[in-house]
Amino acid sequence: MSGRKFKFKNRFSFYLLAIGSACGLGNLWRFPYIVGENGGGAFLLLYVFLALTIGLSLLVSELMIGRFTGTSILAVTRQLTNQTKKKYYLLGWLSLLLSAVTLAYYSVISGWVLHYITQFVTSFFQADAIFYLKNISVAVLLQNGWLQFMLASVHLLVAVVIVVKGFGEGVEKRIASLLPMFGLLVVFLLMGSLSLDSSKEVLRFLFYPDFSKLNWSSLGHATGHVFFTLSLGFGTMVTLGSYFKVEDHLPTIGLRVTLVDTLISILAVLLIFPIAFSSSKQIATDPSLVFDVLPAFLISIKGGLIFGLMFFLFLWLAALNASVGLLETITANITEKRPDMNRTLAAVLSVGVILLMTVFPAFSGAIFKNIKILGRSVIVFFDSTLINVMLPLAVLGMVFIFFKIINENDHKKLFISNELPTSVAMHSHWIFFLKWVVPVVTLSGLLMLFVS
């Protein structure tokens, strides 16, 4: 099948997009508190195993759908619907809806990062900068719905400008020079974190698995986070896969992204937990964990104001990168469904709808603060339902689409490389995981969530 006119200039462009997402909120914000919530080392081990098995298998399959069809997920499912007269297009709309709702929710959290950037900038003009920064917290943000909404609006505005001005090359130029700097900064802060007295207890918590601390919902939390951080089920990887050249070996690309993503996850908990434990003497499990503990650590070290500003600036840029990927997915799908609509209008209309969706998470601690859904606040319910329930369902749909759209001969050609003899043997293992292990593990995780 024919591909798109736009292609990644090189594989590094894709790595920047995928790894930039991994360096963002998924791993540095969400993963530490999920690990703490699920007992530490045993959950971390489970997560790493799932990422390198079902996560990798799914990532390769979604890239292949895009590469084989040369289109986005909505066009793929519409094609299946036309061929079979069955309503497979609903699977495409599910992925697109998840992308939009997740971007709305993600933009509010990205707004938290923007708020901390402004506070660090403002601190340079305060007589007592340390005292000023000690008084900022996520709790203040949660009580101010309009501030959260405005911050999310700014984040989405920047994202839509990048998508409209040109996806791919524009993102590459902005992120290429920043990712290595962010990596160096995280490593530097990690060294300081591991030098704290609490590091021994934290390392024991993380690397001496106690399987008795796993609960019924741990499998569902682990699979959901694997899907979220690797951008699986949204249709994003299908869209990006359609931008690859024929000669690009997708399994190798998928393996590299998964390995880096997993490494970043481990570094994130190593960075955050010693700091959190040294201040509270217990493993924190709150969604605001990073925002509550990291600024206090940063202002306690020499040059902390500069390091704090740099960290949150880079974190926001990485979050922006992930947001651009989601918005590009939505925009590409809309323009393929409506060829008469240009990218600018499609992107602007998408952001307008997404902005309306941000009202619910943005005002979750203000107007909706007394509303509880199954005993949880609006924003926590958003997080849990989207990532632990809806995303696994979308992933199962992707597996179904893969086997419907690509026959055995075609996925063999896409998987096996003459330059990699081991790819012949690995192909059968990959298909086994995709056909049997992924559905069984995903459904088991969903079932355990509901019985817990």
Condensed summary:
With 452 residues, the protein is an all-alpha fold. The chain has 21 helices and no strands.
Structure in words:
- The protein is mainly α and 452 residues long.
- The chain has a single domain (11-358, 385-451), classed as Hydantoin permease, CATH 1.10.4160.
- It is built from 21 helices and no strands.
- It has helices at residues 11-22, 25-37, 41-69, 73-84, 89-123, 129-134, 138-142, 145-165, 169-176, 179-194, 199-207, 218-229, 236-241, 250-280, 289-298, 304-337, 343-357, 359-362, 378-405, 408-415, 422-451.
- Helix 4 (73-84) packs antiparallel against helix 5 (89-123).
- It is globular.
- The N and C termini lie far apart (45 Å).
- 48% of the residues are buried.
- The model has no long low-confidence stretch (mean pLDDT 85).
Helix content: over 70%
| Rg measurement, Å | 21 Å
Give me the secondary-structure category: mainly alpha
| Portion in beta strands | under 5%
CATH architecture: Orthogonal Bundle
CATH class categorisation: Mainly Alpha
Total helices: the number is 21
The count of β-strands is 0
Helix and strand element order: HHHHHHHHHHHHHHHHHHHHH
Number of domains: 1
Uncertain spans, ≥5 residues at pLDDT below 50? none
Give the overall pLDDT as a whole number.
85
Give the biggest sheet.
none
How far from one another are the termini? 45 Å
Spell out the CATH superfamily: Hydantoin permease
CATH topology: Hydantoin permease
Which overall shape is indicated by the principal axes computed on the Cα atoms? globular
